[in-house]
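Box 3.1 A note on notation
Throughout this textbook, protein chains are presented in two layers. The first layer is the amino acid sequence; the second is a token string describing backbone geometry. Keep the layers aligned when reading.
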Amino acid sequence: MSRYLLCLGALLLAPALALAAPMGAEKQPVNLHAIGMFFVFVLGTLAITWWAARQTRSTSDFYTAGGGISGFQNGLAIAGDYMSAATLLGLSSLVFAKGYDGFIYTVAFFVGWPIITFLMAERLRNLGRFTFADIVSYRLDQTRIRTFAAFGSLTVVCCYLVVQMVGAGQLIKLLFGLDYRTAVMVVGVLMLVYVIFGGMIATTWVQIIKAVLLLVGGTTLALLAMAEFGFSFETLAARAVQAHATGWNIMGPGSMLADPINAASLSLGLVFGIAGLPHILMRFFTVPNAKEARKSVFYATGFIGFFFLVVMVLGYAAIVIVGTDPQFFVGGDVKAALIGGGNMVAMHLAKAVGGNLFLGFLSAVAFATILAVVSGLALAGASAISHDLYATVLKKGRATEQQEMRVTRFATVGLGLVAICLGLLFENQNIAFLVGLTFGIAASTNFPVLIMAMYWKGLTTRGALAGGFTGLVSALVLVILSPAVWVAVLGNAQAIYPYDHPALFSMPLAFLVTVVVSLLDNSARAAREREAFDDQFVRAQTGLGAAAASSH
């Protein structure tokens, strides 16, 4: 009963917070359509959480939905995790401002999926149980490796949470007429309710619903926009060239990725970073077997690839429909309201072709997108604390399921408070660099250790720790010294590290240190770890690893 009362209290708290904007705060005009649809979504997802709470009886249910999600359902959920508000808002605006350059940027987000499909999906499902640390620590030292994996996961989760929380705050501030701080608190409260009570079951179904809404909303917007051009891509391209200040330059690569080193570093981070994002990796443990894991990636790839094409259409259509309005686009300068480094071009396009009602729907979908991603991130971070640190490192496998779930809920509350505080702290900062930082850290820290643990017999605990921490520290240092932070945020005259993205240097360095330290490790433990690879390989091929991981 207390669960239901708390859910009801959270529901009542949301509108209370919505009306509690501080006196004197500058407000935008209230969009009643957006607010109405927002509350419809909140009511629906809270009903899902209530249902999921009744289905969640064990740690397996809480962390992985009991492994009962089908490949198609999980593919939609993965797509929901990956198609964040930055995709709809930020990438469409990037195409709006830069043309073809913006589309090249989106491709880097997409091409990481073949790595997941062919190299990782099957082994992730066969060897893991709850988190990717299950795979990394399979034959290595449980205590030290899980501690490192949890630390790396939490770093990535916190960086990504900042991006999502600031994006949510600015979006709701601009579209719903709420104060920024109020919006951040609403997101934090709803996230806590979804994760604490519903766990992975609720998070998965919220992701599925949000993915469907985003696909339907984006496709509808693209069709409405294309109707303005007689559904002719040739007409769209010709009018976009005429309308854009740079003319034909929007149809080819330009200055955005002109520096080959910066472009290569960005691409490496985006391509390999997806294979190290803990909330994405966690999704492969929600399906019953490796076959369904492969199906998950197949379906997710289709949904995400289609949506990226929709985003490109939206960007080019906005050049003509939105860009010709002096209110938004003057002399080649984008005037749309900024959201964490992106902007609101897609929303202006929705209002132009669909009116306030469609703008309200798309606004609610964008908010739902952020909320769903934040919930997935919180669950991944909480599982790293409760499963990897508490149950395995501190309790050495002696914790009961009830104790572990209790710690998970406390950890979720802690992460929720951290997310709210970080969202408030970074309100006025340009946080665009955090997206690259998140993917760069994941590509330099989690990915090298994970892929080597699955495929290289010579990996040792010392090598994994040395390489992982080298990747983490080098990625953080390079980003701090880059123009995005050293100049734009800290106000220095010139950056020490001249590139915006670290992966080109930090990821190879992580691999190099991992290999060298592992080869130089001649300890007795290292010999046992190498011998254990054969057993791990057999279990990775036969699907016995998940069962073994529970007793390892």
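Residues 58-67+74-549 form a domain with the Sodium/glucose cotransporter fold (CATH 1.20.1730.10). Residues 1-28, 328-342, 545-552 have pLDDT under 50 and may be disordered.
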